[in-house]
Design a protein that fits this description.
single chain, 6-stranded antiparallel β-sheet, 47% helix, 6 strands, alpha+beta
Length: 242
């Protein structure tokens, strides 16, 4: 039988605000109810991914009564979109806080937030985003597969992201990241928004790859079908822009 939470959601929110304030940062938004907490922040430190297109690092936190996830966060000024870097080395999944005494649990949480504020976390994010601006993508079945991996394939998000992607200036991982996070920004469900922002961060880093693997004839045929679909979709993208 598990214990009562050592650090209730209200205290987690207070600790988050304290740690960000201690680093002269800003809490951008907090969504909280009786069972869940979502919070995002930025801390000092800005870098350009393009001229006049600035990124700022920060921390994103998601908590329930039994688990807390803390990840580095990237905020893009020009469109007010945010991406969560769940794949980052600094990400911490704290699933045993209710087994710790309150002081130890709070200290574990503070250390997790502090790790995501380290300059190395933001430097890695900037490198990922800059590389993403040079990585061309051609959309086809891949996007739907990425959404399916995140449990988001069946609620209209696919078309919304595709529509946003066609408004972007290029066809890169950076543009796809921005399309995903732009849709996330307008999403009211805080859990869906979180998962979209995690997906955006994973796309920027090249961490998601739903391409078929193996050398079977069926796999080779699937690859061929995927390439044909990609070429068709790529042509559609170009024709819509023209």
């Amino acid at each position: 039988m598990r214990n009562q939470p050592s650090v209730p959601l209200l205290s987690i929110s207070e600790i988050f605000h304290e740690e960000i304030a201690d680093r002269s940062g800003e809490v951008l938004n907090v969504v909280q109810n009786k069972t869940r907490l979502f919070a995002r922040s930025v801390v000092p430190g800005i870098a350009d991914v393009f001229p006049n297109d600035r990124l700022q690092g920060g921390v994103a936190l998601r908590a329930t009564e039994s688990e807390v996830c803390v990840s580095p966060y990237v905020f893009r000024f020009v469109c007010s979109n945010g991406a969560i870097r769940a794949h980052a080395l600094q990400t911490r999944q704290l699933s045993d806080l209710d087994w710790q005494d309150p002081w130890s649990a709070a200290n574990s949480l503070r250390e997790a937030i502090q790790a995501c504020c380290e300059p190395e976390a933001f430097a890695s994010a900037v490198q990922e985003f800059r590389l993403a601006t040079k990585a061309i993508v051609v959309l086809g079945p891949q996007l739907f597969a990425w959404l399916a991996q995140s449990g988001l394939a069946n609620n209209g998000l696919y078309q919304a992201i595709m529509d946003q992607f066609f408004r972007e200036p290029n066809e890169t991982r950076f543009d796809l990241t921005n399309a995903v996070t732009a849709v996330a920004r307008e999403t009211r469900d805080p859990d869906v928004r979180w998962r979209l922002e995690e997906l955006g961060g994973a796309i920027a880093a090249g961490q998601v790859d739903p391409s078929p693997s193996g050398n079977s004839r069926a796999t080779q045929r699937q690859r061929s079908n995927t390439r044909s679909s990609d070429l068709l979709t790529g042509g559609l993208a170009r024709s819509r822009r023209e």
